[in-house]
Amino acid sequence: YPNVPPGPPAVPILGHLFALPSTHQWKTFANWSRDYKSDILHLSVAGKSIIVLNSLQATNDLMEQRSRIYSERPRLPMINELMGWNQQSLAMGLMPYGNKWLARRKIVQQAFSKQSLMSYGSQLEKCTESLINDLFVQPSEFMAHFKRMSTTFIMSTVYGIEVKAGSGDPFIGANEAAVDGLKAAGIAGRFLVDTLPILKYVPEWFPGADFKRLAREWKENMVLAFRAPFEEAWSQFSNHTLQPCLVLNSLDELGVDNADDSDERINTVRDAAGSIYTAAVDTAVSSLATFLLAMLANPEAQKLAQIELDRLERLPLLQDDASLPYISALVKEVLRWKNVAPLAIPHCVAEEDEYRGYKIPKGATIIGNIWAICHDDAIYPDPDKFSPERFLGNNPRPDPDVAFGFGRRTCPGQHLATSMLFLCIARILAVFEISKGTKLDEFGREVDDEPSYEYSSGLAAMPLPFKCTFKPRALANEMI
Ligand code: HEM
Questions:
Q1: Residue pair 431/329 in contact by the 8 Å Cβ criterion
Q2: 122 Cβ partners below 8 Å, 6+ apart?
Q3: Looking at ligand 1, which atom is closest to the CA of residue 410?
Q4: What is the pLDDT of residues 279-322, one digit of tens each?
Q5: Of all atoms in ligand 1, which is nearest to the CA of residue 345?
Q6: Ligand 1 atom 41: the closest Cα is on which residue?
Q7: Which ipTM was obtained for this model?
Q8: How many CB atoms lie within 10 A of CB 216?
């Protein structure tokens, strides 16, 4: 590869396949940048180039300034073809750049823009009230409550469907199974078929072809996750009983006639809705769990946040953000400190390009290393420390917008995610004191159960299980 950016030594043919770690690649990429004294790296796997961008400068110059050519998605045979994630359109996050993608993206962007925030604000407030209630009743199940809160919100705002009480809701089960498959398959190098696409023709019964069975099962889950809630909403739409929601607005706006259900416009709405559902739930759960870990790691931040909240003397509302600067800074720090999507979703460059004298080959996978940027000590000194103060005062550090990705592919749920985090965090801290869980030591004494602060790997990082105690604060009864 003449004149491409530097990178670690490669072996013939397979390139860096075996040098790529199977977990937490973002850290290895950042270390390689240090070792090879370059914020852009070139790797190759079986003849395909991968360019890793480890600095804000490089992601700005290429993925933002030149977004016209840096907005494609690479094709991964396991996810795209065998699991069908973009074979029949469906998930817009994995769709090729083009008109179909744009039509879906417009729907999501419009529904969750900053301006439309107030139209779904009351629903968000209702869901976070239930969350607080659930945390009172069964605090140890906090992860399940986070999931329930975000699913209930998405199902009602997107599909106009009320989630069934208890754990047996069929739509939640379908979404969970689909996202689990995507997360597992999103681990780079996990499936050899991504490196050697020819393997996709191996029959399922062939020894070692277990990936084909997994792909088939995951595909069934994914189709169900996209189709099942949409079909329910569609049948209500046809009967004129569908409650106001994204599906209703979009079908109305596109002028869809309820007699005609074979329309491409219907697929567009189905895909936009399904893309939200699969992208929003786990990201919310992971970042809320990160917030709890942050409170365990830095009790001082919790105290300062509560001093600010107590001045309100009531449960916070969405429009309180201007009067709660510490909480707003805390939300930014949650997004920066541990990233839900440390390597975003890979982009792909549509044309050959040149940058700082290096060649960027056409079709190369482009990875923006969100984690490396959010932990760059030139931008965020002492990056491993959880410190909302870095976004306050006379010299605030830049907002970590990069946590939501790059250029034309940036997360269209950014405003929704930030508002959801703001409201949940403000309300939880107004009502509860958060502290470490406990366990019995070998002498039967109660001691703190220290979290590992470790995360799973894959497309979306989730904190490994940890314990946490929620103690109602003195003001809790007055506030609710
Ligand atoms: C803390 C919460 C969230 C974080 C950190 C996050 C982060 C990201 C990142 C890094 C990407 C990839 C961007 C890129 O390729 O450059 C992405 C894509 C996407 N996100 Fe989010 N996200 C969050 C919540 C949400 C929510 C609530 C929604 C629901 C509307 C959503 C919908 C999407 C969609 C549809 C895409 C694909 C965009 C495309 O390919 O055009 N996300 N998100």
A1: no
A2: none
A3: 13
A4: 898 899 999 999 999 999 999 999 999 999 999 988 999 999 99
A5: 15
A6: 409
A7: 0.99
A8: 13
